[in-house]
Amino acid sequence: MPRSLDTDPNAEAVQIELYRRMTPTRRLEIGLQMSIDARATLLAGIRTRHPDYDDDTARWALFRLLIGDALFVRAWPHAPLVAP
Question: What does the pLDDT read at residue 1?
Answer without folding.
Answer: 63
